[in-house]
Structure formats: C-alpha cells, structure tokens
Structure prediction request, 138 residues.
Amino acid sequence: MGFSAHLRFHWMETVVYKTLQYIPLAMIGFGIDDFFVVHMVALLIGHLNHANVGWSYGPLKYLLNNPVMHIWHHAKAFPANRPYGMNYGLSLSIWDYLFDTAFIPSDGRDIELGFPGDEEYPADFVRQMGRPFAENLP
Prediction:
C-alpha cells in the first residue's frame, strides 16, 4: 500500500463507479458543482485509504471508509468466515456495517497484500488491461 496505489485501477472502474454514483445524484437534483465536491471528497478518501497510514477516523469510521479498514480489502488471504472478501465500500464504510461485510481484526500493518495468482499476472500494461476480459471468455 502506498499513495500511488490509488491511481492503479482498470479504466472501466471509472465508467461503472461514476455512472452508478452520479445518475442517482442527478436524479435527486445534484448539479455539476455538487458532483465536483463529491468527486473531490471521494478522491481524498481513496488516496488516504491507500496511503499506508494507520488512521481509523474515530467514531466516523462507521460512516467513512478508512485506511485501517481498507487495507483488509487488499489482503491476499481471506479469513474462513469471509471467503468472498470484505470491506467493499469505496468511500462509505456504512454499507459494510449494514451488510455485514466489515472486517477489521487488527490494524493490518503486517498482512500480505495481493490476490491468489498475482505472481502470474501479466507484467505489461496492455495485457493487464485485457486480463479481466480474457479470464471470463469461454
């Protein structure tokens, strides 16, 4: 985990996440200025979650995703009671608490990060971008 880790993601994530985020906001009357504020706050939270700092935000941890919680989302090995992962909230942790996917057994400073098979993941940019699509082809 490091600050720049927040900048490594598949380009389709932006298309999907921003569509799911902005369409409902537009439907309730948010304007372009409001979208900008929401985007900047989400970006700040995302950067902090990947910045390798041990912050939990005190009582706000139940509302906002935080670095201590988010590091467990990137754990290489999932615990037996969380076989499909944990801590899915991007900016808001409240969803994980509501749907019982929150998992924070410790500060996570010494856990191994990654995913099973990451050693065989393509090294070049083009193959990395195509990998999510290629894995699901018949």
